[in-house]
Amino acid sequence: MNRPNIWSEGREILFEDNHLLVINKPAGLLVQGDATGDEPLSKKAAEYLRFKYKKPGEAFVGVCHRIDRPVSGIVVLAKTSKALSRLNEMFRDSLMTKTYWALTGRPPVPESGTLVHWLVKDTVRNVTKAYPEKHSQGLRSELNYELLGMAGNRYLLQVNPITGRPHQIRTQLATGLGTPIVGDVKYGFIAPLPDVSIALHARQLQLQHPVTKEMMTFVAPLPDAPHWDAARAYYQ
What we know:
It is built from three helices and eleven strands. The chain has 236 residues and is an alpha+beta fold.
């Protein structure tokens, strides 16, 4: 069996135990399969586990949350059905703290605050629209943000979504602040990035382990991409 040339510990693999596999997902990789037929993160994870533990059959990998294809950063996968069930409940009820870093082309005004919108997903066009007032078809969506500072000629924002909606951070920053994420032409940025990613990274996740109940914090290094280089100065 050939070893899948996909991940290394400490860079892509942030944590693994009997119940969890925490991955620093590269931008451009689907979390779960879709109509494109492209190999998703979940399949790569199953291959990795099958090789590592010399499993004769398919390894169990449960997907409990997703980040968009052009977004990089933390994805938690379940290795057991017990962990998957409990993680599904935790993500559904927002029982964790999620922190994202985003680069924008202009500074937010004000420099920190809370955004609340009602988001409506257009599944045909795969875009989400944000409404500032309650909408009959919308889902209430909330996030906190703050400007960390300049990163080269861009602005580095820290974003903590309170809810977890499709394209939430992307559309709320673009609509609520007029600060579309660098490279995100779908939501108003002027040009794509060379690697067709967007400058949004799931930087940190704090949650309670679904089985041991231990509080855990995962931090994902930024991608090796030029647009993130100046942001590395903000590592603590």
